[in-house]
Amino acid sequence: MNKKIVSLILMFICTLALVACSTGTTNVSEGKSPKQMVEESFAKWYGLKSYDMDMIMNMKFSVEDEVLDMSMIGKGVIFQNPMKMKMVMETTIPGMGQKMTIEQYAEQNEQKMAIYQNIENNWQKITFDDPAMMETMYMDPKDNLKLFMDHLISAEIIGEEKIDGKDALKIKLVASGDIFDQIFQESAGDMLGLGNGLISADVFSQIGDMVYTIWVDKNTLDTLKCQMDLSENMRNLGKALAEEPNMPAEVKDIFANAEIFMEYTILNPNNAQDFTIPEEAINAPEMELPAS
User: Over 60: is that where the pLDDT of 213 sits?
Assistant: First the structure.
């Protein structure tokens, strides 16, 4: 299996993952529409200085003649404004039954964002310094919230559950696929080949609507858990890429049969423990992106 392709896939997932407290007993959700509750919940989430995450990521890609099926569980530490992130995930190597730990860090400032990755004691990093991407990544949280709400098609309460002992409303959200078009073109277009003619600008408009499930605390409107199934979106992207004459064959295949499911639980709002990025990560060799 081409380890470089696998590493690039994991870096892509980390990037996608980037692309995300209060107390009381009064039921503040009463009298509010699902859309209003979601908007307030996201506003509180985006306003956090830090939080921890428990994560589940199920991913399947076709790589050359093999199917790369990776089910990951892990934990993350997120600091916002500026962003600093740590993720430690465990997965089983496909076809081998061996456990593997993947360690990732990300850090940004006004000039660049760096992602560091450690697989089997092999550190690599990738640095993004595209001005348009950094402008989007440094968007004010209120603007991030506006971007999502402007593309929201529907919000529907589909149930109630207990999350970590808290009464939660389960809300299904559908956002217009235009949000992918805007996010990818503004923040990741050059990395994915938009700026150098590798792919055409209308590819991202074919990804389709995004379905997003959020569990909101009934008493505080805190975001407790989120879930995304991007499988259909990635398959749509694969179909669109298949029409691009300049795309390498392996990239078409990777996305054509992709399955991506993510679930993350928000913990310790504004109380995450700070961390230091290891020197081995900072001094790691730069990973090369696929040539156009």
Answer: yes
